[in-house]
Amino acid sequence: LTQQTQAFDQKLTQQTQAFDQKLGRQKGDILTVLDQRLVQQKEEMLRQMDEKMDAKLETQKEAIIRGVVNDMSDMFMPRMEEHDDRLAHLEHHTVHPPLPTAL
Question: Which segments of the chain are extended strands (E)?
C-alpha cells in the first residue's frame, strides 16, 4: 500500500507540476495579449490626439496667415491707392503723341 501511495503521490505531484507549468504559460499568454491590446489602445489614443493637434495647428496657421495678409493689406493699400491717384493725375496731364498711321 505504501508503494502504491508513493506512486500515486509522485504521479499527482507530476500532474500538478505539469498543470502549474501549463497554467503559467496560459497566464503569460493572457498577459501578453492584454499588454498588446493596451499598447494598441494607447497608440490609437495618441494617433487621435495627433490628428486633433494637427487640425488645431492647421486652423491656427490659417488664422495667422489671414491676419498677416490683412495687416499687410491694411498697411499697403492706402499707399497703393495714393500712387494710383497720382498716376491718374499725371496721366490726365500727359500729352500722348499720335499713333503712327499705316503707310
Answer: none
